[in-house]
Amino acid sequence: MKAALQWISAHFYWMRLPSITITPIDIIQILILAWIIYKILAWIKTSHAWSLMKGLVVIGVFVALIYIFQMTTLIYIINQGLGLVIMAAMVIFQPELRKALESLGRRQIVTRLFMPNRQFEQLFSDRTMNEMIRGCEEMARAKTGALIVIEQNDNLSEYERTGIEVDALVTSQLLINIFEKNTPLHDGAVIVRGDRVTAATCYLPLSDNMRLSKELGTRHRAGVGISEVTDSLTIIVSEETGRISLAYRGSLERGVTEERFRERMIQFQNKSELKRRPIFRKEKPKNGT
Questions:
Q1: Is the pTM of this model over 0.85?
Q2: What would be the CATH architecture of the domain defined by 126-276?
Q3: How far apart are CA 29 and CA 39, in angstroms?
């Protein structure tokens, strides 16, 4: 028996398990790799890349079968076209990759590492906040449709150029007059930077998020669309129902109360609080817009 084991050990040396030594660096690398894979999968799941990814998995299974059964002709074609496939994937996923890089840039990782206790200036004054809240509530009661985009870190100049320059202090009456029906400036969005209305009648990108309620019209889809590509806060007043909704980071909170509206505005005004916790949770759509 002993001789048999010695023979097996001598002839099947490749079956011996190597000694494994795990260092703290190895553990850190495993954790970092696990976090990266999790973030990539989470990003793919919440983007249009999810359906494309399922198609790529099916293709991957076929490629694996080709290599397993050694289909030399198909293997040659795959090897020759691998570079083109990578380039095509980068083109197909370009919008998702751009959003991912923009999201990474907005996180301000360097600022958090070297200045963790830094207090950011308020985006706008209390007077401006009260004027916006008062104006939106009056428009909601009168069922006057409105779309107001408040700039944060991402510059909105490219969207300002699609509208008409205003450059005036934010007041409730100014907002009401802009969005009054049948006036020259009522169609489109108003952009607010700091304490000033910079432009009106601005065109915004529409969201193509299929999970948004079919009840939502162009105004709501534009509000969500600009929040998907920038870190701005969008206030939407429905012309049909008079309800106020808020869009931020691609998430829409519909039919907010006056108290909740003010709470969200205060959180957005103080950028330090906005950085510490999300101000919106994705909620199930309610009836109406």
A1: no
A2: 3-Layer(aba) Sandwich (3.40)
A3: 15
